[in-house]
């Protein structure tokens, strides 16, 4: 199997995972409010917002790692493509 196909398949898997995580993060952020004006009876809303913020903070490292991995694999694919073109001259 050619290395370019392996790198492309790995890139496709990482990028698909990145898109899924970004869609999930977007769905979470739709429920996030920048400001809440609550009285004592609505404390459960504050806990829900804190839970949303906690989940988004937990997703941040995955988004960073998957994004960097996808970018590096694109660069690797471009390098392999250029290397193959250079050697065929």
Notes on the protein architecture:
- The chain has one domain.
- Helices cover 82% and strands 0% of the residues.
- The chain is built from two helices and no strands.
- The model has no long low-confidence stretch (mean pLDDT 87).
In short:
By secondary structure, the protein is mainly alpha-helical.
Provide key terms for this protein.
single chain; 89 residues; 2 helices
Provide the fold topology.
Elements: H1 3-30, H2 43-87
Helix pairs in contact: 1-2
Number of domains: 1
- The number of helical runs is 2
Tell me the number of strands. 0
Percent of residues in beta strands?
under 5%
Rg on CA atoms, Å:
21 Å
Share in helix: over 70%
Q: Can you tell me the overall shape?
A: rod-shaped
Which structural category fits the helices and strands? mainly alpha
Biggest pleated sheet? none
The pLDDT mean sits at 87
Query: Which spans have pLDDT < 50 for at least 5 consecutive residues?
Result: none
- N to C succession of SSEs: HH
The span between the termini is 22 Å
């Amino acid at each position: 199997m050619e290395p370019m196909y392996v790198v492309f398949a790995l890139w496709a898997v990482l990028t698909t995972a990145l898109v899924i995580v970004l869609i999930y993060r977007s769905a979470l952020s739709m429920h996030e409010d920048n400001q809440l004006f609550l009285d004592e009876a609505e404390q459960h809303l504050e806990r829900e917002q804190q839970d949303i913020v906690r989940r988004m903070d937990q997703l941040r490292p995955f988004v960073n790692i998957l994004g960097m991995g996808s970018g590096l694999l694109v660069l690797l694919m471009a390098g392999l493509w250029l290397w193959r073109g250079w050697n065929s001259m």
